[in-house]
Design brief:
α5 links the parallel β2 and β3. The chain folds into six domains: 10-201, Beta Polymerase, domain 2, CATH 3.30.460.10; 219-356, Four Helix Bundle (Hemerythrin (Met), subunit A) (Up-down Bundle); 384-471, Hydrophobic Seed Protein, CATH 1.10.110; 473-659, Hypothetical protein af1432, CATH 1.10.3210; 661-716; 720-923, no CATH class. The chain has 924 residues and is of the alpha+beta class. It has an eight-stranded antiparallel β-sheet with strand order 9-10-12-11-15-16-14-13, sandwiched between helices. Strands 3-2-1-4 form a four-stranded mixed β-sheet, with helices on both faces. Strands 5-6-7-8 form a four-stranded mixed β-sheet. Residues 1-373 are annotated as: Uridylyltransferase. Its EC number is 2.7.7.59, 3.1.4.-. Residues 492-614 form the HD domain. It catalyses: [protein-PII]-L-tyrosine + UTP = [protein-PII]-uridylyl-L-tyrosine + diphosphate; [protein-PII]-uridylyl-L-tyrosine + H2O = [protein-PII]-L-tyrosine + UMP + H(+).
Length: 924
């Protein structure tokens, strides 16, 4: 995109050619020995050149200049090899060599290369190739390939090239950026002239449409949002390719030759061009460092490279934000600027397109779709089905119009006109403290926020233009802020906007199939406004040194009165922000069949209306984290917690408990087993301890009875049932076998060895010494029959392990050797042992870095401590595992001894960081 004349190094290039000539003079140039020496010389030249350029990048931080230096290095090498092949490998006896030339095309043609980019070449001929030219090309290509370069090449005549560019827009774009390297310059000039006259002329509209469609497809492949926390620097939304697309369009339509010419063409102002240059240089810096770091053409800024990139780019840690988070925030702000530039150029091109329509057609179009005023008529108008300003002084005359504009857009269901967006971005300084505290501005904003049909898109437009961050400075602090973890897929501001969008989907009923309970409850809320505001603010205090829930509640108490909320509404919003994680944590990491769990949660919630709002907020929060985070199992846990808490808070809990008491549960099962012989039925009713009857629902009790009866009749020591649950997003695997002290550990190991992720486990022992254990594993396959087979593989591996035919530890250690993305993170393990969370069980909670085999090692450690696990609740938040076990000693007592608790902590810390195979060998 920029010229390379400032960074070309003719002295080095001449030295390389001289070195190659000197080698050729020592022997037969075509011999294997000479070729080997030539290749060694080129490798040394390329390696030393790249290392010098990398050092300069570290020194000056100029990414664009680094790319130009790399391109100049490659120019010198390619020209030297080309000349060597022409002079020594295939020398011509004629004074005048046959005419052909070599051009750089595509990315290389722009004169900028990332360290491991492809080298795209075009060999151009006036007519067909000659044997000599074929040998020259073959020698050059094989040398480049042997150097480890990825070379794309075409060998065509001028006519063939023009035919190809007519048929293929990708080739047309590559040739658009063609740059002469060596050979017959007149031939290259002929291609450029004919390309302009025969291809470009009259096809601007076709090219623009193709490039914009290609951009949309690229964004869809790499992730539609520009705020994905592992962005693609080259092809992602807001990445390099978006800037390059702008230049391609400008070069094709206006025949500009450099980025700076965008100003001369009138597509960008001087200030906008400076922003273009800053974005371009920053993205080149990131991409060049990324290639050097990965030592390959890596374009994704993954978690494992983000900290080192931040260090190389000079970012420092600040209170509340790690250096890597500050680097990524800068990246996302640049991506946003790229989006702004894209809109600016698109608007200018659209305006010119309108002007270039033939006069009569313009007249007809204006009659069909004339601009019309909306609202009071003095501020805004509809211009080509989009909202625009009535004049350029609308925001100057009354800055509150910056909020009215978006309110009118929502009310009229109109997209924003690019001209208005451009004026808004230049008027942001008018949003001062007076506007922020203006009652009318805040009333309009609250209406935007609580509009179930337009809240998310309009808020996103306010954020993209910078209005939202200026109007609410607290929100401005979290714009483009990423959280360095694998759980959150988006930046904090994008997460908040998406959560509001999910709430709107629930209120409108659009998400009734996914969230039936939330959609059922939403219309019964006393105050929907409170819930919208709470969702918008729930992560507003991320990036601060203190807990973001506590700090966020303070922010809510400060902002809500400004929005016009009453003191009671303000306190409810603050409470929801303070407790926005409580329901999720309780549902995923506590035993919901334990009365104390429900009582503790009910004490926090205190009212049914708060319970309803917290349930809906929790659903929206989890859904907005990212694709694949929400599943039906989490929904089932939330529904269970909601129902049990509601029952307790309405005073029906004791009645409900009595209805599920042991005698009643037995009576229900007896009724469902009425066709059984009396003796078999009586034995089944005496087979379970009270905990089983209180925790397992009647349908599952009946299925368990059939499983046990079948195992007994067939004299099987091991029986299982696999049941895919599509809506819950899990597969239920139930096992019946003689009890074994390490059974849960073996189950966990078998699941991990087969790639199955356990999300919950229920463990029961029968009165005749059998184990009846159920684990719920995350669903990964679309069809029930495939999930059925997957669950059966897990069960069969467990059976083989119990029979001694398979060593789980060996399978686990083999699995653990595979590289995990979580290796980029470090989490200090936390272990808590509490006796207040359950009436009869001790709750052991472990929070640490997730890894393959972790649950196997933890459950093995607990079993070796002679602890009886009553239930296990497994939650994973990206790289963070939060596993909770309800345990007793072997005689059913809580663990109250401090010495015993210390022993448990030490053993679990060892399990978190140790090798399962080594411990098994030691134990045996």
């Amino acid at each position: 995109m920029s010229r390379t004349r400032h960074v070309e190094r003719p002295v080095e290039a001449e030295r390389l050619s001289a070195a190659l000539n000197a080698i050729a003079e020592t022997g037969e140039p075509t011999s294997p020995e000479i070729r080997k020496r030539i290749l060694a010389e080129l490798k040394a030249h390329l390696g030393e050149g790249r290392e010098a350029i990398r050092a300069k990048l570290d020194e000056d931080g100029r990414g664009g200049l680094c790319a130009e230096r790399l391109s100049a290095l490659m120019d010198g090498l390619v020209r030297a090899v080309f000349d060597f092949a022409c002079n020594w490998i295939c020398p011509s006896p004629d004074a005048l060599l046959e005419s052909f030339c070599l051009a750089a095309v595509g990315g290389y043609g722009r004169g900028r290369l990332a360290p491991h980019s492809d080298i795209d070449l075009l060999f151009l001929f006036p007519s067909k190739q000659t044997p000599r030219s074929e040998k020259v090309i073959e020698y050059l290509l094989y040398i480049l390939w042997d150097l480890g370069l990825k070379v794309g090449h075409g060998t065509r005549t001028v006519a063939e090239t023009l035919k190809s560019v007519r048929e293929d827009m990708t080739i047309r774009t590559a040739v658009l950026e063609a740059r002469f390297l060596c050979g017959d310059r007149a031939l290259f000039d002929e291609l450029v002239r004919r390309f302009d006259t025969e291809i470009v002329a009259g096809t601007a509209r076709e090219f623009i449409a193709a490039k914009l469609a290609e951009r949309d497809q690229r964004h869809a492949r790499s992730g539609v949002s520009r705020y994905l926390v592992e962005p693609q620097v080259k092809d992602g939304k807001g990445g390099q390719r978006d800037l390059q697309t702008l230049f391609w369009i400008a070069k094709y339509v206006y025949r500009v030759s450099s980025n700076e010419a965008l100003v001369g063409a009138g597509l960008l102002s001087r200030e906008e061009y400076r922003l273009f240059r800053r974005c371009d240089d920053f993205l080149w810096s990131v991409r060049c460092h990324l290639h050097f770091l990965a030592n390959r053409p890596e374009e994704r800024i993954s978690f494992d490279v983000q900290p080192e990139l931040a260090r190389r780019l000079g970012y420092q840690k600040h209170p509340g934000m790690e250096a890597v988070e500050r680097f990524m925030k800068h990246y996302f702000l640049v991506a946003k600027d790229v989006g702004d530039l894209t809109r600016i150029v698109s608007a200018e091109l659209e305006e010119r397109e309108q002007k270039n329509v033939p006069r009569l057609s313009r007249l007809v179009r204006s009659f069909r779709n004339p601009p019309r005023k909306i609202g009071d008529g003095s501020r805004f108008m509809v211009d080509h089905d989009r909202i625009n300003v009535a004049n350029d002084r609308v925001f100057e005359s009354d800055p509150v119009n910056l909020i009215r504009f978006f309110h009118q857009a929502a009310a009229s269901d109109l997209a924003l006109h690019p001209d208005a967006v451009r004026l808004i971005t230049h008027s942001l300084g008018r949003i001062d403290r007076a506007v922020q505290h203006d009652p009318e501005a805040n009333r309009l904003f609250l209406e935007i926020l609580t509009d179930p049909d337009h809240a998310e898109p309009v808020l996103r437009a306010m954020n993209e233009t910078g209005v939202l961050g200026r109007f609410i400075p607290e929100f401005g602090k979290i714009v483009a802020m990423m959280q360095f973890n694998m759980y959150h897929h988006y930046t904090v501001d994008e997460h908040l906007l998406r959560s509001v969008g999910f709430l709107a989907g629930i209120e409108s009923g659009r998400l009734a199939e996914d969230h039936p309970r939330a959609c059922e409850v939403m219309p019964t809320l006393k105050d929907r406004t409170v819930l919208y505001v709470a969702l918008f603010l729930h992560d507003i205090a991320k990036g601060r040194p203190e807990d973001h829930s506590t700090a966020g509640a303070r922010v809510a108490r400060r902002l809500c009165p400004r929005f016009g909320l009453t003191p009671q509404q303000t306190e409810t919003v603050a409470w929801l922000v303070q407790e926005h994680l409580t329901m999720s944590i309780t549902a995923q990491s506590r035993d919901l069949a334990d009365r104390r769990t429900i009582q503790t949660f009910a004490n926090v919630v205190q009212s049914l209306d708060r319970l309803k709002m917290l349930m809906i907020l929790t659903v929206c929060d989890i859904r907005a984290v990212g694709p694949g985070v929400w599943n039906g199992w989490k929904g089932q846990l939330l529904r269970t917690l909601y129902a049990e808490t509601g029952t307790m808070m309405t005073g029906r809990f004791e009645e409900a408990r009595q209805s599920r008491a042991v005698p009643h549960a037995k009576a229900r099962l007896a009724e469902s087993l009425a066709s059984w012989p009396e003796a078999e039925r009586a034995r089944m009713l005496d087979l379970h301890y009270p905990a089983y009857w209180l925790r397992v629902d009647p349908d599952r009790q009946a299925r368990h009875a059939e499983l046990i009866r079948s195992a007994d009749s067939e004299h099987r020591k091991f029986a299982y049932e696999v049941r895919p649950l599509a809506f819950e997003g899990v597969t239920e695997v139930t096992l019946f076998t003689p009890d074994h002290p390490r059974l849960l550990s073996i189950i966990a190991g078998a699941c991990a060895a087969t790639g199955a992720n356990i999300v919950d486990a229920q463990i029961f022992t029968t009165t005749d010494g059998h184990a009846l254990d159920t684990v719920f594993i995350s669903r990964t396959l679309d069809h029930d029959e495939d999930e059925q087979r997957r669950g059966e593989r897990v069960a069969l591996l467990i059976e083989q392990a119990l029979q001694g035919r398979v060593r789980i530890s060996e399978a686990m250690d083999s699995k653990a050797r595979k590289k995990r993305r979580g290796e980029a993170f470090s989490i200090e393990p936390q272990i808590s042992i509490e006796n207040e969370l359950s009436d009869r069980l001790t709750v052991v909670s472990i929070e640490c870095l997730d890894r393959t085999g972790l649950l196997y090692d933890l459950t093995r450690g607990l079993s070796e401590l002679n602890l009886d696990i009553a239930s296990a609740h497994i939650a994973t938040f990206g790289e963070r595992a939060v596993d909770t076990f309800y345990v007793t000693d072997l005689v059913g007592h809580k663990i109250t001894s401090q010495r015993r608790q210390s022993e448990i902590r030490m053993r679990l810390l060892g399990a978190i960081g140790g090798s399962s195979a080594a411990r098994e060998q030691k134990a045996s």
